[in-house]
Amino acid sequence: MNKMAEKTIVVAAERYVTELLKDKLTEDHRYHSLKHTLKVRDAALELGRMMQLEEDDLEVLGLAALFHDTGFSETYEGHEAVSGQIARAFLESHDYPEEKIRQVRLLIDATYPAKYPSSTLESLIKDADLSNLGSERYFETLKNLRYEWAIFLNQAYDDREWYKMNYKFVKDHEYFTPAAKALYGPQWNVNRKKLKELRNDHSSSGEKTDHKKVEKKSSKLPGGNISASKSAQMMFKTALRNHLDLSNLADNKANIMLSVNALIITIVMPLAASYVRSNLYLLIPMGTLLATCLISMIFATLATRPIKMMGYTSRELIDSGKSNLFFFGNFYKMTFSEYQEGMEQVVADDKNLESSIMRDLYYLGHSLGRKYNQLRICYTIFMYGVIATVIIFGVSYSLFVS
Fold first, then answer.
1. I need a surface site. Which of 79, 114, 131, 389 has the fewest CB within 10 A?
2. In whole angstroms, what is the distance from residue 11 CA to residue 38 CA?
3. Structure confidence by residue, pLDDT tens digits, 190-238
4. What pTM was estimated for this model as a whole?
5. Could you please report the per-residue DSSP string of 307-367?
């Protein structure tokens, strides 16, 4: 692309992102707003120039910064993946080079909080995305973020929890590039000290008044209190999502084995029928291969076979807190009134509700363990079966020739 085309794509992208965010974001997006996006873009370009980047790299960095939060127009959680899709669709429509599109999407993915940067450009966009930590208006943006989390994530924090959590985040944060450290470091340190003061002030004032309340609340829920711990809620949520992702991955692996073995059987059986009669040395290797495929398919099918479900949960199980009505397999045969009564009883008792969460995670993990164990057997049989087939074929052929 020539210089004029490069300038055109940047201008078009800014116009597109501006219109998209103005149209799709709500008034409740007080932190992840158009203003935030443009600030991140400006910060990224400023840091890039300080690091003496080439113009092509600055262009890619600026485009990634513009698109990095566009996913909020469709979803709040997991917006990075959606942002990458939006960027790709726009850039492809403007015939942007495929390699540069790939770079833009990699930079957008790098803004995922848990991802560690693997390049200078990824470090720069992460530093730009959190440049507000070293801003004089940090506490204003922090207030907006708190509001967003309460609205979109249903995560409401009291002052003591909020300042404690954010102090830890800011204290543990470190900018990746020398440019960001020089530009934001001094104000970051000021903000960190202010957060520490706020944390200490609210901790000291809240300890006496809240101690008895917390103690009383904890006593109602022996063995743990998920509802009172944001960290526990986040861990359960993350664990459930990871288990579901791993379950989908296991199903995909099983489907691959089913497809591969079915294809082999489809090809080998006609060949065996045609050639084995006149070439008896093929009988044993062909039989070994077919047996391998058949057994592999059996275990792949077992891995994906749905578990047996009763579809009905008795009132006794609900009363004893030994059933999980959040799983469809436990209620699809119940009438709506029975399900409604049971669910009302579950959600009315924090202990039963938390027990349901734990039970859901446990049995999901139990099912996942079964899937992966059967998949391991399937892949092991397939691997050794193919090896055995090749060896037997070689031995049989050698004996036949000699």
1. 114
2. 13
3. 999 999 999 888 876 555 545 444 444 444 444 445 655 666 677 777 7
4. 0.53
5. PP------HHHHHTT---TTSGGGTTTS-HHHHHHHHHHHHH-HHHHHHHHHHHHHHHHHH
Are 125 and 154 part of one and the same domain? yes
Q: What are phi and psi for residue 227, nearest 5 degrees? A: -65, -25
Provide the Cα torsion 127, 133, 138, 141; round to 10°: 60
In a domain, 220, yes or no: no
Is residue 318 packed enough to be buried (19+ CB in 10 Å), middle (13-18) or exposed (0-12)?
Answer: buried
What confidence score (pLDDT) does residue 99 get?
94
Could you read off the pLDDT of 280-332 as tens digits, one per residue?
787 888 889 999 999 999 999 998 888 777 777 777 776 666 667 777 777 78
Chain Cα centroid distance, residue 87: 19
| 180 and 284 housed in the same domain | no
Domain that holds residue 365: 230-401
* CA count, 13 A, side-chain hemisphere, 377: 15
Q: Which residues of the chain have pLDDT under 70?
A: 1-7, 204-232, 318-323, 349-350, 402
- Count the Cβ atoms, other than its own, within 10 Å of residue 211: 10
Are 239 and 317 in a shared domain?
yes
Q: Are residues 63 and 204 in the same domain?
A: yes
The CATH number of residue 175's host domain is: 1.10.1300.10
